[in-house]
DNA sequence: ACAAAAGTGTTGACTTTACACCCATGG
DNA sequence: CCATGGGTGTAAAGTCAACACTTTTGT
């Protein structure tokens, strides 16, 4: 390929992440407020452009760190967006990723060089976003529903352990349906991928729940089939 | 973003497709022989660089047509490859796709402007390929095994109809295990997504098999759960 | 002792698997 | 009439879905 062929000149890659969490029974996504053009002042998904001297995942992690202060987030490829006019100025193709994090483990930077206000938004109340980020986010929410049926995405949400009622609520929220407590518990335990730490979480005025953890060596498995 | 920031300059997007078929009981993939530098003379997966004036899928279809003469291939996103040194000359990020075609419907161009010799290779006998295409192909073969569990990928393989023994062999080849004839038939028929055309295919010296077709309006469904 | 949520087993419905014989064709 | 693969049903095992009562805690 010729470097100066104008057909290929000035393309770039956007790395865009939809980082989700569950906060008091509400599924939320992390948005940042842009402080530069284009789309100055608008909310956007976390991400930015890949540099020439870094691998794809390096660039993704750098962008997330620069704009939110978050590190070591488990991210999975979601989709690729390549309409020729999806970005002004120069041609950009966007690669989108999904992450799911535990709020207790993250410390957001509110203000960075390039952005102000990183904030969690309920996925039912998303403002107009920069670029085609509304389209990317809608797609990511749909993919999250599929991804959650397999266990690996939950590992990153609960690195410190979780109770079964708690994890069940996450499923119910994301899948948007009620699940039977007994069947849920039976199913999850039968997969041999979590264990009872025998520790308990005390709530106010209720029976305490046992804390479970993922077995490190266990493979990713499908929890629900449909 | 500044257009002339050297951090973003001269990046490009490779669109790479692993186009599979099943030929006399062997799963094959389409490779082309390169006629230009870099990697002149080497075999490679079908694909090339996205132009600025086309959407992603337009570019993919154009590349496939230019290099093989094939059109209207059903392709699905597979993965993204973004190591910083994966291409010489300039920084390229590769987006990979999977397709599955019926040999009877395709007419390969053997010689084009940019390539010579488009040829089908058994996936067990793949030569050294240009770029990181061996890595991309290995990944695509693994994803094909997962994709085949859902029916939509089969539609493109058999647009003109198929017999149940025939389609069963495709599953057995790709999943690499024997399936019970009765159960396979029962399962596929129970999904309400194929119908018996009442036509028959005559083989030499055997009972003829019925020809089935996909019901156009039927949704994509999961055939096997594991 | 009460309110609030955690924990626990059984049954029937459905799905999956295993398995063996007859049928239609060409040579 | 034989060789070859196509077509068919049934029963046992396993998985899923529905359902109600007891336990533990804080107040």
Tell me the layout of helices and strands:
Two copies of one chain form a homodimer.
Chain A: E1 11-23, E2 26-34, E3 43-49, H1 56-68, E4 75-81, E5 91-100, E6 115-122, H2 133-147, H3 152-157, H4 164-175, H5 181-190, E7 194-201, E8 209-214
The first copy, chain A, binds a DNA duplex (27 and 27 nucleotides) through residues 163-165, 180-183, 185-187, 202-210, 225.
Output the structural class of chain A.
alpha+beta
Uncertain regions of chain A: pLDDT < 50 for 5+ in a row? none
Give the distance, in angstroms, between the N- and C-terminal Cα atoms of chain A: 46 Å
The succession of helices and strands of chain A, N to C, reads: EEEHEEEHHHHEE
> What composes the largest sheet of chain A?
6 strands, mixed
Task: Count the beta strands of chain A.
Answer: 8
- Which two chains form the greatest contact, residue counts included? A-B, 36 and 36 residues
Annotated CATH topology of the largest domain in chain A: Nucleoside Triphosphate Pyrophosphohydrolase
Summarize model confidence as the mean pLDDT of chain A.
Answer: 90
In CATH, what is the class of the largest domain in chain A?
A: Alpha Beta
């Amino acid at each position: 390929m010729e470097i100066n062929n104008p057909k290929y000149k000035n393309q770039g890659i956007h790395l865009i992440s939809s980082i989700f969490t569950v906060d008091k029974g509400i599924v939320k996504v992390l948005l940042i407020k842009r402080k530069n053009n284009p789309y100055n002042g608008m909310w956007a998904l976390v991400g930015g452009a890949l540099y020439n001297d870094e691998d794809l995942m390096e660039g993704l992690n750098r962008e997330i760190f620069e704009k939110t202060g978050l590190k070591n987030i488990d991210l999975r490829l979601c989709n690729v967006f390549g309409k020729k006019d999806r970005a002004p100025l120069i041609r950009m193709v966007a690669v989108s990723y999904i992450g799911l994090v535990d709020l207790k483990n993250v410390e957001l930077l509110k203000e960075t060089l390039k952005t102000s206000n990183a904030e969690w938004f309920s996925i039912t109340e998303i403002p107009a976003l920069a670029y085609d980020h509304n389209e990317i986010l809608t797609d990511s929410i749909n993919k999250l529903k599929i991804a959650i049926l397999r266990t690996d995405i939950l590992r990153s949400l609960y690195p410190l352990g979780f109770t079964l009622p708690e994890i069940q609520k996450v499923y119910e929220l994301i899948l948007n349906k009620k699940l039977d407590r007994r069947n849920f518990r039976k199913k999850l335990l039968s997969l041999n991928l979590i264990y009872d730490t025998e520790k308990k979480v005390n709530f106010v005025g209720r029976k305490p729940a046992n804390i479970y953890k993922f077995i490190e060596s266990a493979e990713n498995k499908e929890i629900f089939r449909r």
